Amino acid sequence: MDILPQPAYSRAPQRRRSQRASSKTYGPAFDQLFGTSPYFAFAVDQGGKLLAYNQHASTVLGPLPAQARANTLYATWVLPMLQNEALPTARMRGYWRGEVELKGVDGSSHPVTQTIEWRANTEPPSFLCLAYPLDDYDVYESRLRFKYLFEAHPHPMWVYDLQTLRFLVVNAAAVAQYGYTEAEFLHMTIRDIRPPEQLERLAQNLAAAPAKGAEQSGVWTHRRRDGSRMQVDVSSHSITLSGRPARLVFAHDISEREQLKLALQLRGRALEASVNAIVITVHAADGDLIEYANPAVTRLLGHTPDSVLGRRLESLLDLQMHDEQRQSLSAAMQSQQAMTLLLRPRHRDGAQLWTQLHVAPVHAAEGAIGHHVCVLTDMTAIMEYQAQLEHQANHDALTGLPNRALLKDRMAQAVTFSQRFQHSLWLLCIDLDNFKLINDHLGHQVGDQLLCAIAQRLCDGAHEGDTVARLGGDEFVLLLPVANQRPMASILALLQETVAAPVTLGDQVVTVTCSIGISIYPADGSDADQLLKHADIAMFRAKEAGRNQSQFYEAAMHARIAERALIESELRFALARNQLSLVYQPKVDLHSGAITGMEALIRWQHPTLGAVSPARFIGVAEETGLIVAIGQWVLRTACAQNKAWQLAGLPPLRVAVNLSARQFRDHILQHEVRTALEESGLEAQYLELELTESLMMNNVDNVVAVIADLKQLGIALSIDDFGTGYSSLAYLKQFPVDYLKIDQSFTREMLTEPKVAAIVRSVIALGQSLGFKVIAEGVETAEQLDYLRQHACDEMQGYYFSRPLSPEAFAELLRQR
Ligand SMILES: Nc1nc2c(ncn2[C@@H]2O[C@@H]3COP(=O)(O)O[C@H]4[C@@H](O)[C@H](n5cnc6c(=O)[nH]c(N)nc65)O[C@@H]4COP(=O)(O)O[C@H]3[C@H]2O)c(=O)[nH]1
């Protein structure tokens, strides 16, 4: 094993011939190989008889006595240990190596490393013994060093022949780590432990092998016996082994280290690439200081990582404004456990953020907390979105006012407050009058703008603590929590004035009034729902009472609302269930007494409610829109009935049908009228439509256009309830009407109220001067009849002549006359 630094005397090997004495018995090959070797070389047979020895052995150990040479070696050069242990072991295993002391003939002692190889194929079979002298202490010590550095080295080491690339010697760690036995290694070349893709690199490396002794190193992939691979850090030195150029290789398995390095690199990269700001603080006597900050810190807080090193986390987060958060942070940094906090740090530019801070303590080897890993997640967008969602859930999208949900919440708080401090609480339900008309005529955009403008005005007038809410549509609510300290009457008046002030929307000026319903805590309800319901009822009452009014809730209103709800639900099925019918009231010429026509009046016979008068359900039908379908049915039924009477031979008369404003709004009236006439076959001159005065005056432009269309068909038109609305004479003359109908309230009072009588006379004179016929409704007495006749009223309608009659009764009346 001459990989040891060679002893001084071996550097100039004596190339003398070996003793020839035994060459015949052991063969010339021995002389050739070992004759001039600077080491001890000798061969013995199984009995210990010396077969050959080289010159170095004979020179250093001394020539053997003749009988020893002839008989046995043991008595001279070899210690008993060699005889008793080494040779039997070599015989058994093929090889033995160990340190022994050879004994010179003169009694001198020669420490050597002895290798013994069993050679079964020589004649006779023999042991080839090679020994390296260790008599020099340095050599001995380097041998020991070798033992520990090479053989017992924990990392694989080997020597390979630079020409054949064969392994010449491998250590135990190589055997253990590569999985090959030592014998297998010695039959392999260094190519065998390389994966194919590295062979070219190996070849290049070998070609560029450095000069003797120079170190070469690099990271390679090696293959184990089982095919698995490992990353090895290889360093090698050129040496000479048995006179041949070789390289001593040291291979350090760095697979784990590389994996660890990769894992660390990945983690480092993850830290750098994290969208969350990550800060590592180190524990210091007077508080934790920042030791590391990733780039996300800049994105989140505006500070560069370098600029925050050595600072405190608390100062980085700039939490001066938030005492409580500062305390929580300090508690988290002192806690032994991971903690998560919601904080409001400040960006370097002053912007307030929302962040979630997760603080995790890192324990040092001794167990104490050495570091804290602090992860800051930007929650600003999430929190803002959450706030936005909350706002959306609690506010009206159009006006931004609190919606019903938030109003109820505020009401619940206000009720609690009022209970505790014995205050009263007012709830005002404000509904815009005729808002639907504005929407329909001016468009939804203008409608929306108007709602926003009204919302703004209500807010402007509200006191601190009041809530202005929008419940949808044109309905606003005002919650006045400490109302008993305020002059409510003036508040209501001011409210109505505020709403009614003209609003300029683009190039239009819009004016809208409102109806206000008021409920008061605790008198009108003990909770939000009740108070809202009752304010709503009162608001409906205000609307019924003629709009632009305010109305306080009264218990009786509740019954009316309940009845209205009942009517509404039942009316939906009235048509389909054939519960509706028409009665006809004759119109009579005041001069001739002849029947000139009849007004068709609707009747509803309900199985449980009985006969429901039009006064109870027409208004509901108009509000719910059911009047459109009901109106169509009335029109078709009246036309069909009139035609049926004519076909039955009765004198042709004109049937008058009442129209509601809603029927005008849907723009299908002309179509409906034509269809009713066509289906029934009735000529247009036998149909009259009665329009109320307020209907005509509220939609002048639209009504004028529709009336012009209808008049072209040839039908007659009358203005119903004349005198109850606010007719403008300027408009009146635009309508091509045939009749003015004096409202029955005037007929009823004209004989007792001189002013009413004057109105009646004026209407008659006005109508006739405009070319209309005038008909008085509700004539019940002969006196009324006389008065009307006296003042040249054209026609009358009333119980005095006849109540409304069923079709059969009406036909009978006609027949009798
Ligand atoms: N006290 C008294 N009343 C008299 C007298 N003569 C007639 N009346 C009643 O006066 C109302 C006249 O009808 P209107 O003014 O058009 O007033 C009608 C009309 O506005 C509406 N209406 C009735 N039928 C219809 C319909 O088919 N369509 C529409 N849109 N409204 C209708 O309902 C209102 C009430 O109808 P009715 O209850 O049938 O009431 C009828 C009639 O029965 C009298 O001498 N004394």
Describe this structure in words.
It is a single chain. The longest helix has 22 residues, at 626-647. A hairpin with a 3-residue loop joins β24 (595-606) and β25 (610-612). α23 packs parallel to α25 (669-680). The protein is rod-shaped, with a radius of gyration of 60 Å. It is an alpha+beta fold and 817 residues long. It has 5 domains: 8-145, Beta-Lactamase, CATH 3.30.450; 153-258, PAS domain (Beta-Lactamase, 2-Layer Sandwich); 274-383, 2-Layer Sandwich (Beta-Lactamase), CATH 3.30.450; 395-553, 2-Layer Sandwich (Alpha-Beta Plaits), CATH 3.30.70.270; 571-816, EAL domain (TIM Barrel), CATH 3.20.20. The protein contains 32 helices and 31 strands. It is 42% helix and 25% strand. The model is unreliable at 1-24 (pLDDT under 50). The strands form 6 sheets. An 8-stranded mixed beta barrel has the order 23-24-26-27-28-29-30-31, surrounded by 4 helices. A 5-stranded antiparallel sheet has the order 2-1-5-4-3, sandwiched between helices. Strands 7-6-10-9-8 form a 5-stranded antiparallel sheet, with helices on both faces. It starts with 22 loop residues before the first helix and ends with a helix. The chain binds ligand C2E.
Descriptors for this entry?
single chain, 817 residues, alpha+beta, Beta-Lactamase, 5 domains, eight-stranded mixed barrel, 32 helices, 31 strands, 42% helix, rod-shaped, disordered N terminus, binds ligand C2E, PAS-assoc_C, EAL domain-containing protein, PAC, EAL_dom
